[in-house]
């Protein structure tokens, strides 16, 4: 292994603290150029260590330090490149020898995103044990559901024992409470053994507030604020090392953990003014690792910009990412089915808008956004980007957790309406994603929760949530207290309810819908046409048609008839359209007729 090294351009002197955190050996470190310091000591697997710095005047802040006491030694600080934090983000780091893990997934050849089904989960609330081992216990359920990609919300260390994960501070480490590095590797192996790829949600747009010590070492941030923390330094002085810090994290997850994909959180908050954008650099790295290993590696962006450049091919001037989340489809579907039209839902809520997003991915593609008070987005060129490059969903951790009480759609909608939303997502041309528990209409909420180790941070978080919801019209009295352990406990899934009604009927419908999606080429082909062939002039229903190239040997055609009204409707089918009933929901069963199909309130029929 290499020696203990650290990049600390803000430091005049650095000491390595090695061994027992209560009585460590102190090892002076020598400047090695470029802001790096080297101890000359070989790293030992399992060893505990930290750094202590004496800051250059005007940089960093030591314990009890201030303008009148510059240059004092800091308290022990974790390594910004720490691989493990057994005692949390405030404690000593630990050396991890990735080469020592004897991988058992040698037969794994990977999975591409097109044709797949993503499943987003939070490790701490998915199972009773709240760790990686608990996730592995439920993989059979995911296989039966047809899941091909398991997407884990962030697993980097955070303060306390409960958090969504977006407050991570050690971007190369794994939260000890979930099982640490070895636990994550065993989960990846278990997933691969069952044919499931693993996607890891990572946050490179800010550092969390609890345990954030990188500012002692160097200019990891550049001032300004993303709304969650300071802007990461991607183009300022010394930014080359910050970019390397990010790219090395990407490389580590792909190579050392065999992770198949990364979901990149809020990429619009990555302020990169360089000619070679950090997102494109990540994509180039992913392609290189894919070529070297023979296993596809995918990058999925979250962005609220409706920017086609993210998924446009690099040869056509884009970044070439495999996919991006598409909130417009969610908003169009949610608003139409639920009737909610406040805040960012204001421009949605009609069958026409849903039909538009199903065919073009974005509703805001350069048009005025009422919520933003300006034009927003850009049109997608379907000649360069397939619609399968957009991830769509009926809900996500954001769309559920960023509600006042964390109420799921299943807590407000009938099973028929839930199934209708699932049918649209399953039959649409995009890459579908489910959020943990939605497949059985879980009765448990998923609220925002955290357990910062500073009461001040807890109070500020609580007050910030109150202000945010007040602006959106929510009653502050309804807002779940994120610091209350009960908020976290209530968000755990109740697996026993899957066998109860109406949950069991909804789960059966989800299984049938996504089995049908796998079985029919028209629903899996990433280039299959998607056209809302008919939109009811009265705004009650639409027909969505999916078809492969008619000249192909496996030419296929599937229609979804969907009723978004409180009363029954009869939908006339186009001449020559398939009329065989492939699937309908038992609680709102459709009735096919001669050249038409009768749909009950909030009913649907998949025809082929």
Automatic annotation (TrEMBL):
Annotated Gene3D superfamilies: E-set domains of sugar-utilizing enzymes (1.10.10.760), Glycosidases (3.20.20.80), Immunoglobulins (2.60.40.10)
Matches recorded under Pfam families: Alpha-amylase (PF00128)
Residues involved in substrate binding: 263-268, 327-331, 397-402
Main localization (coarse): cytoplasm
Source organism (scientific name): Corynebacterium sphenisci DSM 44792
Taxonomic lineage: Bacteria, Bacillati, Actinomycetota, Actinomycetes, Mycobacteriales
Record pathway: Glycan biosynthesis; trehalose biosynthesis
Family the entry assigns: Belongs to the glycosyl hydrolase 13 family.
Protein name (database record): Malto-oligosyltrehalose trehalohydrolase
């Amino acid at each position: 292994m290499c020696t203990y090294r650290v990049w600390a351009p803000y430091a005049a002197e650095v000491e390595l603290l090695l061994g027992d955190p209560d009585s460590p050996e102190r090892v002076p470190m020598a400047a090695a150029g470029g802001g790096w310091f080297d101890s000359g000591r070989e790293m030992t697997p399992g060893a505990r260590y930290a750094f202590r710095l004496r800051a250059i005047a005007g940089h960093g802040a030591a314990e009890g330090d201030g303008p009148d006491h510059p240059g004092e030694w800091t308290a022990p600080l974790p390594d910004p490149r720490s691989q493990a934090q057994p005692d949390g983000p405030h404690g000593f780091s630990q050396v991890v020898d990735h080469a020592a893990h004897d991988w058992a997934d040698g037969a794994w050849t990977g999975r591409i995103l097109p044709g797949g089904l993503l499943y987003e989960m939070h490790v701490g609330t998915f199972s009773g044990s709240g760790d990686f081992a608990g996730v592995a216990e439920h993989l059979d359920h995911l296989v039966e559901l047809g899941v091909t990609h398991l997407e884990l919300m962030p697993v980097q260390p955070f303060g306390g024992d409960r958090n969504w994960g977006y407050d991570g501070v050690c971007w190369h480490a794994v939260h000890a409470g979930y099982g640490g590095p070895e636990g994550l590797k065993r989960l990846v192996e278990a997933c691969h053994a069952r044919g499931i790829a693993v996607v890891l949600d990572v946050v490179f747009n800010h550092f969390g507030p609890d345990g954030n010590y990188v500012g002692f070492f160097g200019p990891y941030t550049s001032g300004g604020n993303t709304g969650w923390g300071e802007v990461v330094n991607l183009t300022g002085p010394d930014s080359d090392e910050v970019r390397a810090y990010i790219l090395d994290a990407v490389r580590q997850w792909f190579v050392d953990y065999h992770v198949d994909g990364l979901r990149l959180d809020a990429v619009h908050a990555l302020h990169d003014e360089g000619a070679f954008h950090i997102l494109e650099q990540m994509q180039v790295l992913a392609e290189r690792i894919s070529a070297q290993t023979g296993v596809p590696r995918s990058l999925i962006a979250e962005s609220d910009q409706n920017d086609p450049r993210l998924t446009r091919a690099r040869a056509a001037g884009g970044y070439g990412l495999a996919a991006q989340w598409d909130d417009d489809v969610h908003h169009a579907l949610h608003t139409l089915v639920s009737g909610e039209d406040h805040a960012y839902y204001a421009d949605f809520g009609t069958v026409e808008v849903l039909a538009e997003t199903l065919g073009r991915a974005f509703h805001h593609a350069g048009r005025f956004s009422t919520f933003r008070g300006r034009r927003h987005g850009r049109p997608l060129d379907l000649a360069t980007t397939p619609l399968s490059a957009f991830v769509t969903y009926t809900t996500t951790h954001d769309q559920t957790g960023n509600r006042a009480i964390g109420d799921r759609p299943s807590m407000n909608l009938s099973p028929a309406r839930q199934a209708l939303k699932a049918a649209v997502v399953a039959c649409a041309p995009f890459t579908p994603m489910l959020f943990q528990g939605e497949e059985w209409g879980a009765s448990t909420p998923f609220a925002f929760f955290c357990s910062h180790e500073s009461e001040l941070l807890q109070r500020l978080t609580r007050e910030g949530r109150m202000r945010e919801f007040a602006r959106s019209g929510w009653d502050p009295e309804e807002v779940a207290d994120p610091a209350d352990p009960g908020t976290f406990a209530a968000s755990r899934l109740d697996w026993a309810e899957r066998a109860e009604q109406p949950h069991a009927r909804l789960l059966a419908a989800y299984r049938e819908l996504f089995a049908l999606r796998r079985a029919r080429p028209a629903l899996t082909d990433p280039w299959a046409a998607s056209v809302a062939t008919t939109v009811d002039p009265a705004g009650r229903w639409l027909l969505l048609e999916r078809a492969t190239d008619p000249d192909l040997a496996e030419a296929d055609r599937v229609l979804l008839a969907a009723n978004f009204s409180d009363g029954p409707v009869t939908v006339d089918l186009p001449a020559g359209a398939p009329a065989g009933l492939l699937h309908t929901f038992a609680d709102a069963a459709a009735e096919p007729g001669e050249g038409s199909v009768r749909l009950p309130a909030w009913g649907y029929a998949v025809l082929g």
